[in-house]
Design brief:
With about 450 residues, the protein is of the alpha/beta class. Among the domains are: about 60 residues; about 240 residues, Aspartate Aminotransferase, domain 2 (3-Layer(aba) Sandwich), CATH 3.40.640.10. The chain is built from 13 helices and 11 strands. The longest helix is centred in the last third of the chain and has 35 residues. The protein is globular and about 65 Å long.
Length: about 450
Amino acid sequence: MHDDLDRLPGLLSHHAAALLAGLEDRPAAVVDRPPPPRRPLPAPTGLDGALAEFTERWEPGLSGSAGPRYLGFVTGGVTPAALAGDWLTGVLDQNPTSRLDSSAPALEDETTGWLAEILGLPSHTGMLVSGATMSNATGLAIAREWLGERAGISVADDGVGALGEITVFSAAPHASVHKALSLLGIGRKRLRTVPALPGREAADVTALDEALTALDGRPAIVVANAGTVNTVDFDDLGAISALRDRHPFWLHVDAAFGAFAALSPAHAGLVAALDQADSVCVDLHKWLNVPYDSAVQFTRRRDLQLRVFRNDAPYLGAPGDVPADLTPENSRRFRALPAWFTLRAYGRDGHRAVVERNIAQAHRLGALLETTPGWRLLAPVRLNVVCFAHETRSPDEIIRRASPEVFVTPTTLWGSPGLRAAFSNWRTSDDDVERAHRALLQ
């Protein structure tokens, strides 16, 4: 191992630099190549041998998900500064679970403070988690504790069974919300779907008002969206927040990537009322373009967050000032460092340029498809996702034939099968949009 350590900078930097240089030409997706067969652990070969085997057996099957024409899911790329921060994260290997041994938690505090500043969340504090799934689960766990506070109990101490019936409302919840409700013991069936506005994924606020009225004063949880995955639709956060004048409910907003609309003056109005939410989910490995995995959970009630996740472990430090007392994880990666680097390097203006360029590119692809015979949009292009279909070709056929030039993901919108192209990579150019369109037509 010591020999490998001495040679590591040359070996790794050469190989990683070659991968980085070839990223734009790497297949966007590898859909027809079977993975290598699994085999027993072989005899040791040292770093040289491991790197050679990885290059031969595994590297060809890995997608160009950090590249400019990977338009599947909502996957960001990695800015150069974020990549530098990620390399340093691995080298330093900090576990920011306690304030006793390093300044890593303080850097996390600064990073989440910067994010709150650019996203318009002055009333919130934030903690780093692994992704939108865990961010939504964390926010809903705090909401569950709030329900307990209203009933004069602590769910963290007495269990979810002490609460009795729990009601959650949402118009178009992400799959991770259902998973979080299952994980938290609330239950998937506790979620009641609120009618959406015609031709929209946004909640009908009048219908939500009526549903809350029917609870006759019983507290509830409302999950609103700031950017749905299919059509990037936004609930009217201001109108929903105003309902709290008449009804008691916790407002959790899933703004996994839509929160970054705040960076674009033309679209910031979509999230103008985001600070009124009680908890907010924001992904960083999407539109902030930092490496997986990285997200933030913001909340206005850190006291309840502490009640849910506290460790009661004196060896970690004074209770209430321990990062591990505020997230589901104790040991975790120093996720804040790549985000700190990209925010410090490019600032609000640099990331605003990425957001606005991606929005323009989505509108460009939408316009190209809309004027191409045989293709149709399943919904208007609102922000950075294009939802579309072909009259005769199936989504699976299109994905298979368009890859490896471009990768898009299948979906279903209002009962119609279709495809999604999500623009959230800083590398994507206008030429890539034209190449993606040609690949879809082939």
